[in-house]
Amino acid sequence: MAMAVGTTKGPKSDINITPYIDILLVLLIIFMVITPVRQMDLEVKVPQPPPEDAKALPPPPDVIVVSMSEFAQLAINQEPVSIAELGPRLLEIYSARANKNMFISASAKLPYGDVVKIIDIAKGAGVIDVGLLTELR
Q: Which residues pair with 79 in a beta bridge?
């Protein structure tokens, strides 16, 4: 007489995972669609052109202006500085200041990446707000 081993009669106790896989695939598609929409952005305030009757005034003496010529020569308030000295020099300036604002005046012929590099160095030195100066015509 032969016996069947391992066979049970009645309901199975296995979990049906098909609905869980369907939900997982739907969530995966949702996250794939949403991810490109969420991008890292810099908060930018676009400068407005000055009124026609405004005269170009020199900046106050406590304002820090980093200028970069079209030949990538840097200067902090007309004092020449190299790119390697820029970070420590800005850190020295802003460590004792409550006003952590800085302006960048760069040539229009420079690549955008050079200006972003200056902004990155300034943020690393503790500058909170960075303003970009435009040319007056």
A: 76
